[in-house]
Amino acid sequence: MDVLVSLGVTSAYGLSIYQIIKGADMYYFASVAMITTLVSIGKLIEDKVKHNTSYTVSMLTSKVSTKAPIVDSADDGEEEIIEIEAKNVKICDIVLVKQGETIPVDGIVISGNASVDEAILSGESKPVSKKIGSKVLASTILVEGTIKVKVTCTSDETFISKVIEAVEEASIYKPPIERLTKKIANIFVPAVLEIALTTFIIWLIIGKGIERSIVVF
Question: If phi over 0 gives left and psi between -120 and 50 gives alpha, with beta otherwise, what is residue 145?
Fold first, then answer.
């Protein structure tokens, strides 16, 4: 497509310059401007979509906590809080989450009651109440209370991780129709160029003049 657009714009512009030099009054600058504008608008829309996708991924990634305070029970029954990388958390680990903190894991509440802001995932503006047995998700924010959460999946399998992965895949996914179009274009574009060039040469040979030949081309 870029080849055809570039060739069309260049040919129209070149012919217009030739017409000016020759003193004719038929120009094609309007066509050049129209094609360039339409293509530029298309590129602008494409870039906007890519930017929005990139922003969404960056925003979601920034909400994921990289640290997780693990509750470690000593032999004497005392609990010790050990902060580790969230990616190293294992299933069945116990994570302590306090008010104002971002929940670093997907899991089940085993202790405490709390209110959780899930707007990042569900769009719900009001905090959701959580109690023992309730499910909580990584990247949501504990706005009130303190809870202990039993981890139910690794960091790669959290709901937020799957959302980010889905958005990234969607940004690079090419539907079957697009792949088919590209295959056709790989054959169609060279064929069109060959036909156009052949027609241009034939019209020159039969004496139709360079102006008519370029227009046909």
Answer: left
Q: Is 167 helix (H, G, I), strand (E, B) or coil?
A: helix
Could you tell me where the DSSP H helices lie in the chain?
2-22, 29-62, 119-122, 159-172, 176-205, 210-216
Task: Give the H or E element holding residue 69.
Answer: strand 67-73
d(CA 47, CA 50): 5
Instruction: Name the least confident of 1-15, 43-57, 115-129.
Output: 1-15
Look at residue 118 in the predicted model and tell me its pLDDT: 92
For residues 125 and 52, is the Cβ–Cβ distance under 8 A?
A: no
Q: pTM of the entire structure? A: 0.62
Supply 113's token pair: 């009651």
Question: Are the C-beta atoms of residues 155 and 161 closer than 8 Å to each other?
Answer: yes
Closest CA to 105 of 127, 85, 132: 85
Answer whether 83's CB lies under 8 Å from 77's CB: no
Q: Three-state DSSP class for 45?
A: helix
Strands of the 128-130 sheet, one edge to the other? 128-130, 114-117, 141-145
